[in-house]
Amino acid sequence: MKHLVAIGRALAIVVAVATSLMLGWRAGSLAALRQDDVRSGGIGLSRDDWEADHGPGDSGQSLVTYEGGAYSVAFEDDVVMFLELGWEDQGNVAFDEAEDEVEDLLPSDAELVETYVAPATAGGPISLQIQRYESNALEDLLAGGTGDRTGGILVIYQDTSVGDQHERDVARASIAVGTES
Question: What are phi and psi of 172, to 5 degrees?
């Protein structure tokens, strides 16, 4: 089981780097997501608002970890643009539970647009479920920044189910904000 956790963590790093490259992170001047009718538990929050809920973080090279590593966060102009969370220490969780926790971290107006599944391969027991969301409030927030930001949000779940399991078993999820290019 330890090798599955190690593979999962390595894949998480690859997913985080690939996602940030695919989504083209750029610096810009942004304000936090603060609209009366839209709330977020993570994406689009200011660093101050995030840390009011999760305490101070431990800075790494490009990510800040919170709550003993429960969350890894990337900020752009002190706004949450990337989140990663994992359940390996709990023996993973059912997909519905992971999805509920992820949705709490998205802007409340985020709508699921499409879902993709990348099945596990012979070389590794991890499949990916990818969900693309759109948030008008996030798009409005980011419009004053780099100009090429969208309200698009990509969520990648790492599914470690093996064999004939009927329920998906999620180890990690990554959430990232996108750009047009």
Answer: -145, 160
Entry pTM: 0.78
Alpha-carbon gap, residue 44 to 39, rounded angstroms: 9
Alpha-carbon gap, residue 89 to 87, rounded angstroms: 5
Cβ contact 172:10 at 8 Å: no
For residues 26 and 67, give the distance between their C-alpha atoms in angstroms, rounded to a whole number: 27
b/e 7-38 (16+ beta carbons within 10 angstroms → b): bbeebbeebbeebbeebebeebebebbebeeb
**Is 126:159 a contact under the CB 8 Å cutoff?**
yes
Categorize the per-residue pLDDT at 28 as very low, low, confident or very high, splitting at 50, 70 and 90.
very low
Q: DSSP per residue over 97-160, as a string?
A: HHHHHHHHTS-TT-EEEEEEEE--BTTBS-EEEEEEEE-HHHHHHHHTTTSSEEEEEEEEEEE-
Distance CA 135, CA 33 (A): 11
